Amino acid sequence: MSKGYFEGVGDNKFDPDRGMTRGEFVTVLGRIQKIDKSKYQNSKFSDVKQGEFYAPYVNWASETGIVNGVGNDKFNPNDVMTREQMAVIMARYLKVAGVTVQNGGNSEFKDSAKISSWAKDAVEELAKAKIVNGMEDGTFSPKTPFTRAQVAQVLYNIYK
Fold first, then answer.
1. d(Cα 130, Cα 107) in Å, to the nearest integer?
2. Which of these, 2, 17, 71, 146, has the minimum number of CB atoms within 10 Å of its CB?
3. What pLDDT digit, counting tens, does each position of 111-153 carry?
4. For the chain, counts of helices (H) and of strands (E)
5. What mean pLDDT comes out for the span 72-93?
6. Cα-based angle 27, 151, 98 (whole degrees, multiple of 5)
7. 8 A C-beta contact, residue 96 and residue 66
8. Which of 72-76, 84-88, 107-111 is the least confident region?
């Protein structure tokens, strides 16, 4: 929060255990990149309305190929992001941002069969780079919400 990437949730609280929404996540990524919000006013998503805090960031992420939406011209910006959705968005973001990662981590998870086919490569890439870790029980838990604290940890792992 000290760098201004995250906004609190009011009353000087961070709410670390709350799931991060898709709109909040791309907003954080756009703030890290210090995008010029004025360049990203037009949305291809019917549910991303101009004037919403996340709108220019979603538009930027869409234009740069970081996000594709969920189908039917929708992005679902207020939906809580799953762990596998985060992995896909983050893997694309790293490429766009030109961030080079080192391999060496473990990418084996007890529940790897539960990771959606569209997310498997991204989860493996981020795990090998030690950007994401599994849960304490050795699973990745791909369908569970990715919390604000976990997003902060992932960003720390990348930019430390």
1. 9
2. 2
3. 999 999 999 999 999 999 989 988 999 999 999 999 989 998 9
4. 5, 0
5. 96
6. 65
7. yes
8. 107-111
Q: How many CB atoms lie within 10 A of CB 104?
A: 8
Q: How far is CA 91 from CA 13, 46, 99, 159, in A?
A: 29, 25, 10, 14
pLDDT value, residue 122: 95
Residue 108 buriedness (CB in 10 A; 0-12 / 13-18 / 19+): exposed
Q: What is the pLDDT of residues 30-57, one digit of tens each?
A: 999 999 999 999 999 999 999 999 999 9
Quote the pTM value: 0.89
| Short-list 25, 19, 20, CA closest to 89 | 25
Residue 89 near residue 28 (C-beta atoms within 8 A): no
Nearest alpha-carbon partner for 43 in 19, 21, 69: 69
Burial class (CB in 10 A: 0-12, 13-18, 19+), 120: middle
Per-residue DSSP letter, 81: P
Q: What residue ranges do the domains of the chain occupy?
A: 18-79, 81-159
